[in-house]
Amino acid sequence: MKTYLILIFILITCLLVGCNNEAPFSQHQVKTVYLNTSSYESNQEYQQMLELINRSAKAINERDSKALLELFSDKIENSKNLALSNYDYQAKIQETKLLKLDQPIFQTNETDPNKTNVSITVEYLEKDSKDTKKESRTYYCQKVDNKWVIAFID
């Protein structure tokens, strides 16, 4: 009887405390909320830029540098180098998990309509942290060969 009580105590403790030791932002525990592109159906260019931002966040979360680099252009000087540096910092050093992308604000360049800045609010976790952080990020988008790409992220 005493053995059963000890076993039940251990099971209850595991359930209450948690038996797994996965990182706080395990893919199984947290689902990312991406930007709502359907809100911009009337403006296909804005919609395309938001899709680029969503794809970049997905690439960071999935640790897929190749998918991230596809969103940038070789025709923009240092664009891919900066993207890779940003990726290394977020994915490898800080082990960032993006949780929520929200509140896009578009600012079209008045002198060059092929350049638009999209500022968003990002909620994220970093390794060894259980507290979410929130910051504003700006994605500098540019039309290259009649296609929107990310020039760089600030």
UniProtKB/TrEMBL annotation:
<dbReference type="InterPro" id="IPR032710">
    <property type="entry name" value="NTF2-like_dom_sf"/>
</dbReference>
<protein>
    <recommendedName>
        <fullName>DUF4878 domain-containing protein</fullName>
    </recommendedName>
</protein>
